[in-house]
Amino acid sequence: QVQLMESGGGSVQAGGSLRLSCVVSGSTYKYNPYCMGWFRQAPGKEREGVASIDSAGGTSYADSVKGRFTISQGNTKNTLYLQMDDLKPEDTAMYYCTLDSWRSCTYSRPNWSYWGRGTQVTISS
User: How far apart are the two ends of the chain, measured CA to CA in Å?
Assistant: First the structure.
């Protein structure tokens, strides 16, 4: 069973930075190719894609975070990061890590197979 666990959320002021991490575990995590991504959901709003990365290193970002957020992977490929800079109050949300066995993907692709439980990010003005 594949498991994803996020960490790194917290409360910061606008203009600040946070780095989210997601660790993938489980004996079935041998996907190649694969895609990983970050989604977020604010209270009262629909879940939205934020960023994605594929096994070839291709990335995509939602327009709302482009230039401020950076998605990356660790050297062992079982850790996913989201560096978030110049944070804004509208970035406040629960952030989720995702994984699937696609060869390519974009941040908005729906129906990912595996999801973490989320980590809360709160930005104050």
Answer: 40
The stretches of 56-102 forming alpha helices (DSSP H) are none
Taking only the tens place, the pLDDT of each residue in 37-81 is 999 999 999 999 999 999 899 999 999 999 999 999 987 778 999
Dihedrals φ, ψ of 53, to 5°?
-145, 140
Find the largest Cα–Cα distance for the chain.
Answer: 43
**What is the residue type of 68?**
R
Cis peptide before 89 (omega within 30 of 0): no
Reference 122, options 5, 37, 8, 9; nearest CA is 9
Predicted confidence (pLDDT) per residue in 92-104, tens digit? 999 999 999 888 8
Per the structure block, which two tokens stand in for 50? 């934020």
